[in-house]
Design a protein that fits this description.
286 residues; mainly alpha; Serine Threonine Protein Phosphatase 5, Tetratricopeptide repeat; 16 helices; 0% strand
Length: 286
Protein backbone atom coordinates (compact mmCIF):
# COMPACT_ATOMS: atom_id res chain seq x y z
CA UNK A 1 0.00 0.00 0.00
CA UNK A 2 1.38 3.42 -0.96
CA UNK A 3 2.14 5.44 2.21
CA UNK A 4 0.26 8.52 0.92
CA UNK A 5 -2.88 6.70 -0.23
CA UNK A 6 -4.95 8.09 2.64
CA UNK A 7 -4.00 11.67 1.73
CA UNK A 8 -4.62 11.06 -1.98
CA UNK A 9 -8.01 9.42 -1.48
CA UNK A 10 -9.10 11.99 1.10
CA UNK A 11 -8.23 14.87 -1.22
CA UNK A 12 -10.03 13.18 -4.12
CA UNK A 13 -13.12 12.53 -2.01
CA UNK A 14 -13.30 16.10 -0.72
CA UNK A 15 -12.89 17.54 -4.23
CA UNK A 16 -15.51 15.16 -5.60
CA UNK A 17 -17.99 16.18 -2.91
CA UNK A 18 -17.32 19.88 -3.56
CA UNK A 19 -18.10 19.29 -7.24
CA UNK A 20 -21.50 17.91 -6.25
CA UNK A 21 -20.79 14.22 -7.00
CA UNK A 22 -21.86 13.11 -3.55
CA UNK A 23 -22.49 9.46 -4.43
CA UNK A 24 -18.96 9.04 -5.78
CA UNK A 25 -17.52 10.84 -2.75
CA UNK A 26 -19.41 8.46 -0.47
CA UNK A 27 -17.90 5.48 -2.36
CA UNK A 28 -14.39 6.94 -1.99
CA UNK A 29 -14.74 7.45 1.75
CA UNK A 30 -16.29 4.01 2.20
CA UNK A 31 -13.25 2.54 0.44
CA UNK A 32 -10.97 4.54 2.72
CA UNK A 33 -12.90 3.31 5.75
CA UNK A 34 -12.21 -0.24 4.62
CA UNK A 35 -8.49 0.50 4.34
CA UNK A 36 -8.31 2.46 7.61
CA UNK A 37 -11.07 1.16 9.89
CA UNK A 38 -11.88 3.29 12.90
CA UNK A 39 -10.25 6.43 11.52
CA UNK A 40 -12.30 9.35 12.91
CA UNK A 41 -11.43 11.85 10.17
CA UNK A 42 -12.35 9.40 7.41
CA UNK A 43 -15.68 8.70 9.10
CA UNK A 44 -16.26 12.44 9.49
CA UNK A 45 -15.60 12.97 5.78
CA UNK A 46 -18.04 10.17 4.99
CA UNK A 47 -20.62 11.95 7.17
CA UNK A 48 -19.96 15.23 5.35
CA UNK A 49 -20.48 13.53 1.99
CA UNK A 50 -23.81 12.08 3.14
CA UNK A 51 -24.79 15.47 4.57
CA UNK A 52 -23.95 17.17 1.27
CA UNK A 53 -26.08 14.61 -0.56
CA UNK A 54 -28.92 15.20 1.91
CA UNK A 55 -28.85 18.97 1.43
CA UNK A 56 -28.83 18.64 -2.36
CA UNK A 57 -31.87 16.34 -2.18
CA UNK A 58 -33.53 18.73 0.28
CA UNK A 59 -33.03 21.67 -2.10
CA UNK A 60 -34.64 19.56 -4.81
CA UNK A 61 -37.68 18.94 -2.61
CA UNK A 62 -36.97 15.18 -2.38
CA UNK A 63 -37.47 15.02 1.37
CA UNK A 64 -37.84 11.24 1.77
CA UNK A 65 -34.48 10.42 0.18
CA UNK A 66 -32.91 13.45 1.89
CA UNK A 67 -33.98 12.04 5.27
CA UNK A 68 -32.33 8.69 4.48
CA UNK A 69 -29.07 10.48 3.62
CA UNK A 70 -29.32 12.54 6.83
CA UNK A 71 -29.67 9.35 8.87
CA UNK A 72 -26.57 7.90 7.17
CA UNK A 73 -24.66 11.11 7.92
CA UNK A 74 -25.65 10.97 11.59
CA UNK A 75 -24.62 7.32 11.87
CA UNK A 76 -21.20 8.13 10.38
CA UNK A 77 -20.79 11.06 12.79
CA UNK A 78 -21.62 8.81 15.75
CA UNK A 79 -18.98 6.30 14.63
CA UNK A 80 -16.44 9.12 14.20
CA UNK A 81 -17.11 10.32 17.75
CA UNK A 82 -16.81 6.81 19.12
CA UNK A 83 -13.47 6.41 17.29
CA UNK A 84 -12.02 9.64 18.69
CA UNK A 85 -14.15 11.71 21.10
CA UNK A 86 -11.40 14.33 21.29
CA UNK A 87 -11.15 15.16 17.58
CA UNK A 88 -12.14 18.86 17.30
CA UNK A 89 -13.10 18.69 13.62
CA UNK A 90 -15.73 16.02 14.31
CA UNK A 91 -17.41 18.19 16.95
CA UNK A 92 -17.25 21.28 14.69
CA UNK A 93 -18.88 19.62 11.70
CA UNK A 94 -21.39 17.69 13.80
CA UNK A 95 -22.42 20.98 15.42
CA UNK A 96 -23.21 22.43 12.00
CA UNK A 97 -25.10 19.25 11.09
CA UNK A 98 -27.35 19.72 14.13
CA UNK A 99 -27.63 23.46 13.48
CA UNK A 100 -29.03 22.77 10.01
CA UNK A 101 -31.60 20.41 11.56
CA UNK A 102 -32.51 23.14 14.08
CA UNK A 103 -31.40 20.82 16.90
CA UNK A 104 -29.94 23.77 18.76
CA UNK A 105 -29.29 22.01 22.06
CA UNK A 106 -27.07 19.43 20.36
CA UNK A 107 -25.45 22.07 18.15
CA UNK A 108 -24.55 24.09 21.24
CA UNK A 109 -23.12 21.01 22.97
CA UNK A 110 -20.74 20.24 20.10
CA UNK A 111 -19.72 23.85 19.47
CA UNK A 112 -18.83 24.09 23.18
CA UNK A 113 -16.82 20.86 22.93
CA UNK A 114 -14.98 22.23 19.89
CA UNK A 115 -14.07 25.42 21.78
CA UNK A 116 -12.62 23.31 24.61
CA UNK A 117 -10.62 21.07 22.28
CA UNK A 118 -9.43 23.31 19.46
CA UNK A 119 -6.71 25.94 19.14
CA UNK A 120 -8.08 27.33 15.83
CA UNK A 121 -8.75 30.94 16.82
CA UNK A 122 -11.02 31.84 13.89
CA UNK A 123 -13.23 28.76 14.20
CA UNK A 124 -13.37 29.08 17.99
CA UNK A 125 -14.58 32.67 17.60
CA UNK A 126 -17.29 31.56 15.15
CA UNK A 127 -18.36 28.70 17.45
CA UNK A 128 -18.58 31.07 20.42
CA UNK A 129 -20.62 33.55 18.36
CA UNK A 130 -23.15 30.83 17.48
CA UNK A 131 -23.33 29.59 21.10
CA UNK A 132 -23.98 33.18 22.20
CA UNK A 133 -26.76 33.55 19.63
CA UNK A 134 -28.36 30.25 20.66
CA UNK A 135 -28.26 31.32 24.31
CA UNK A 136 -29.58 34.82 23.60
CA UNK A 137 -32.60 33.45 21.73
CA UNK A 138 -33.18 30.56 24.15
CA UNK A 139 -33.00 28.08 21.28
CA UNK A 140 -31.50 25.29 23.37
CA UNK A 141 -34.58 25.22 25.59
CA UNK A 142 -36.80 22.16 25.40
CA UNK A 143 -39.90 24.12 24.41
CA UNK A 144 -38.42 25.20 21.09
CA UNK A 145 -37.33 21.64 20.26
CA UNK A 146 -40.78 20.30 21.15
CA UNK A 147 -42.37 22.82 18.79
CA UNK A 148 -40.01 21.86 15.96
CA UNK A 149 -40.51 18.13 16.50
CA UNK A 150 -44.31 18.48 16.63
CA UNK A 151 -44.45 20.24 13.26
CA UNK A 152 -41.94 17.84 11.73
CA UNK A 153 -44.11 14.92 12.89
CA UNK A 154 -47.24 16.46 11.29
CA UNK A 155 -48.72 17.80 14.54
CA UNK A 156 -48.83 21.35 13.20
CA UNK A 157 -51.48 22.78 15.52
CA UNK A 158 -49.56 21.63 18.58
CA UNK A 159 -46.26 22.85 17.14
CA UNK A 160 -47.58 26.32 16.31
CA UNK A 161 -49.06 26.64 19.80
CA UNK A 162 -45.73 25.61 21.39
CA UNK A 163 -43.80 28.02 19.18
CA UNK A 164 -46.11 30.87 20.17
CA UNK A 165 -45.60 29.98 23.84
CA UNK A 166 -41.86 30.15 23.25
CA UNK A 167 -42.24 33.57 21.61
CA UNK A 168 -43.92 34.94 24.75
CA UNK A 169 -40.50 34.96 26.41
CA UNK A 170 -38.32 35.23 23.27
CA UNK A 171 -40.21 37.59 20.92
CA UNK A 172 -37.14 38.37 18.78
CA UNK A 173 -36.18 34.76 18.00
CA UNK A 174 -36.52 34.61 14.23
CA UNK A 175 -36.23 30.80 14.27
CA UNK A 176 -39.41 30.60 16.37
CA UNK A 177 -41.27 32.90 13.98
CA UNK A 178 -40.10 30.59 11.20
CA UNK A 179 -41.64 27.63 13.06
CA UNK A 180 -44.96 29.48 13.37
CA UNK A 181 -44.91 30.27 9.67
CA UNK A 182 -43.88 26.74 8.72
CA UNK A 183 -46.71 25.19 10.73
CA UNK A 184 -49.29 27.67 9.42
CA UNK A 185 -48.16 27.17 5.83
CA UNK A 186 -48.57 23.40 6.21
CA UNK A 187 -52.06 24.02 7.61
CA UNK A 188 -52.97 26.29 4.69
CA UNK A 189 -53.30 29.35 6.94
CA UNK A 190 -51.64 31.57 4.36
CA UNK A 191 -52.13 35.02 5.91
CA UNK A 192 -50.89 33.90 9.33
CA UNK A 193 -47.98 32.13 7.68
CA UNK A 194 -47.05 35.16 5.58
CA UNK A 195 -47.03 37.41 8.66
CA UNK A 196 -44.83 34.98 10.60
CA UNK A 197 -42.32 34.59 7.76
CA UNK A 198 -42.19 38.37 7.27
CA UNK A 199 -41.35 38.68 10.96
CA UNK A 200 -38.67 35.98 10.67
CA UNK A 201 -37.03 37.74 7.72
CA UNK A 202 -37.23 41.16 9.43
CA UNK A 203 -35.51 39.72 12.52
CA UNK A 204 -32.60 38.40 10.46
CA UNK A 205 -33.80 35.02 9.18
CA UNK A 206 -30.90 33.80 7.07
CA UNK A 207 -30.66 31.72 3.92
CA UNK A 208 -33.20 31.09 1.18
CA UNK A 209 -35.64 28.97 3.22
CA UNK A 210 -37.55 31.76 5.03
CA UNK A 211 -37.85 33.67 1.75
CA UNK A 212 -39.01 30.61 -0.18
CA UNK A 213 -41.63 29.83 2.47
CA UNK A 214 -42.79 33.47 2.50
CA UNK A 215 -43.14 33.38 -1.28
CA UNK A 216 -45.36 30.28 -1.11
CA UNK A 217 -47.75 32.12 1.21
CA UNK A 218 -47.70 35.21 -1.02
CA UNK A 219 -48.41 33.03 -4.04
CA UNK A 220 -51.35 31.28 -2.39
CA UNK A 221 -52.77 34.67 -1.35
CA UNK A 222 -52.65 35.77 -5.00
CA UNK A 223 -49.82 38.29 -4.68
CA UNK A 224 -47.78 36.86 -7.54
CA UNK A 225 -45.66 39.97 -8.07
CA UNK A 226 -44.51 39.92 -4.44
CA UNK A 227 -43.89 36.17 -4.61
CA UNK A 228 -41.68 36.65 -7.68
CA UNK A 229 -39.65 39.38 -5.97
CA UNK A 230 -39.22 37.28 -2.83
CA UNK A 231 -38.12 34.22 -4.80
CA UNK A 232 -35.59 36.23 -6.80
CA UNK A 233 -34.11 37.46 -3.51
CA UNK A 234 -33.87 33.83 -2.36
CA UNK A 235 -32.25 32.82 -5.65
CA UNK A 236 -29.62 35.54 -5.26
CA UNK A 237 -28.59 33.83 -1.99
CA UNK A 238 -28.47 30.33 -3.51
CA UNK A 239 -28.54 30.37 -7.34
CA UNK A 240 -28.86 26.59 -7.76
CA UNK A 241 -31.68 26.01 -5.26
CA UNK A 242 -34.11 23.95 -7.34
CA UNK A 243 -37.03 24.48 -4.93
CA UNK A 244 -36.77 28.24 -5.46
CA UNK A 245 -36.36 27.91 -9.24
CA UNK A 246 -39.32 25.54 -9.41
CA UNK A 247 -41.48 28.00 -7.47
CA UNK A 248 -40.46 30.77 -9.87
CA UNK A 249 -41.79 28.48 -12.59
CA UNK A 250 -45.08 28.10 -10.72
CA UNK A 251 -45.38 31.89 -10.37
CA UNK A 252 -44.74 32.32 -14.10
CA UNK A 253 -47.39 29.71 -14.90
CA UNK A 254 -49.96 31.45 -12.72
CA UNK A 255 -49.11 34.71 -14.47
CA UNK A 256 -49.78 33.05 -17.83
CA UNK A 257 -46.11 33.20 -18.87
CA UNK A 258 -45.78 29.67 -20.25
CA UNK A 259 -42.46 30.13 -22.04
CA UNK A 260 -40.84 31.72 -18.99
CA UNK A 261 -42.16 28.86 -16.86
CA UNK A 262 -40.65 26.31 -19.26
CA UNK A 263 -37.29 28.02 -18.85
CA UNK A 264 -37.41 27.70 -15.08
CA UNK A 265 -38.41 24.03 -15.12
CA UNK A 266 -35.76 23.23 -17.76
CA UNK A 267 -33.19 24.84 -15.47
CA UNK A 268 -34.39 22.63 -12.61
CA UNK A 269 -33.91 19.54 -14.78
CA UNK A 270 -30.42 20.66 -15.79
CA UNK A 271 -29.52 20.78 -12.10
CA UNK A 272 -31.51 17.67 -11.12
CA UNK A 273 -32.58 15.52 -14.11
CA UNK A 274 -34.72 13.31 -11.84
CA UNK A 275 -36.84 16.10 -10.31
CA UNK A 276 -40.38 14.66 -10.59
CA UNK A 277 -42.23 17.98 -10.21
CA UNK A 278 -40.24 19.66 -12.97
CA UNK A 279 -40.67 16.63 -15.24
CA UNK A 280 -44.45 16.43 -14.83
CA UNK A 281 -45.05 20.19 -14.92
CA UNK A 282 -42.92 20.69 -18.02
CA UNK A 283 -44.79 17.89 -19.79
CA UNK A 284 -48.13 19.49 -18.91
CA UNK A 285 -47.36 23.03 -20.14
CA UNK A 286 -49.21 23.67 -23.39
Amino acid sequence: MRPDIRTEFTGAGIMTARNGSHELAIEIFRALEGLFPGDAVTLMNLALAYDGQSRALERAGREETAEAARESAFEAYKRALAADPGEPAVHYNLAYFHLHQRSFEKAREHFAAFVRLSDDAAKRAEALRIVKEIDAQGLAEGLFQRAFDAIRMNHEEEGVALARRFLETHPDAWNAWFLVGWGCRRLGRWTEGREAFEKAVALGGSGPDPLNELAICQMELGDLAAAGRTLRSALALEPENTKVISNLGVVALRQGLAEEARGYFRTVLELDPEDPVAQSTLASIK
